[in-house]
Amino acid sequence: KKMANYLDLSTKSVEQGEGRLPKLRGQICPVVTVTTAATTLYDHQSGATVFLTISGGSDVVITLPEVAAGLNFTFVATASPSGAGDAVITAATADTIAICVGPDQSADGTFDAAADTVTLEAAALGGEVIRFVSDGTKWYAFANQPAVGSVTYAG
Q1: Whole-model pTM?
Q2: Cα-Cα-Cα-Cα dihedral sign, residues 88, 89, 95, 101
Q3: What is the C-alpha separation between 50 and 92, in angstroms, rounded?
Q4: How many whole angstroms separate alpha carbon 76 and alpha carbon 51?
Q5: N or C: fewer beta carbons within 10 Å in the chain?
Q6: Given a cut of 70, is residue 97 above it in pLDDT?
C-alpha cells in the first residue's frame, strides 16, 4: 500500500479567498480484517483497527507483536461469529496482557494482570471492542462487551 498523498489541498477556506485549507483523504490508519485464517500483527501495523468477522468452525489465533512503548491496536467484532470458532488474541510473550473487561448491569467488571490470551467467544453478539495499548513492558487491554462472557481471558 502506498502511504503518500494523504493530504490534499482544497480550494475552500473558512473565509472566502483566504488561502487553502488541507483536506484529508484516503485511509489514515491501517485496517486488518480477520475471518478464518490465523493472523500475526506487526509493530508497523500499530494503530490498526482489526475487524473480527469470524465465520469458521475453528478458533482463529491473532498474535500481537512483542511489547513496545506506544504500540496499540483496536479489535472490533463486526457481527456475531457465524460459526463455532472463537477469535483468540494472544501475546507473543506469556503473562504480558493486563486486561480489564468492562462491567455489565450487575457486576463491576473483571481484571487480570498477567493474562496470555484474550478471547472473543463464538457466543459474542457483535459490537464488542477490545483496545490494546503497550507501555513497553505489558499490553494493557480494555474490553467492552454487550453481553457478559462474550470477551474472556486466560493465562
Answers
A1: 0.77
A2: negative
A3: 17
A4: 5
A5: N
A6: yes
**CA nearest neighbour of 73 among 48, 39, 91:** 48
Q: What is the pLDDT of residues 25-42, one digit of tens each?
A: 655 677 888 888 899 999
Are 126 and 80 in contact by the 8 Å Cβ rule? The answer is: yes
Torsion angles phi and psi, residue 30, rounded to 5: -65, 150
Look-up: residue for cell 463464538? 122
What pLDDT was estimated at residue 63? 96
Q: Which amino acid is at 58?
A: S
Q: What is the predicted pLDDT for the residue at 27?
A: 55
Residue 39, exposed/middle/buried by CB under 10 A (0-12, 13-18, 19+)? middle
Burial class (CB in 10 A: 0-12, 13-18, 19+), 37: exposed
Helix (H) or strand (E) segment spanning residue 23: strand 22-24
- How far CA 130 is from CA of 4, 5, 39, 126, 139, in Å, comes to 29, 30, 16, 12, 12
**Could you read off the pLDDT of 99-144 as tens digits, one per residue?**
888 766 566 678 888 889 999 988 888 889 999 999 999 999 999 8
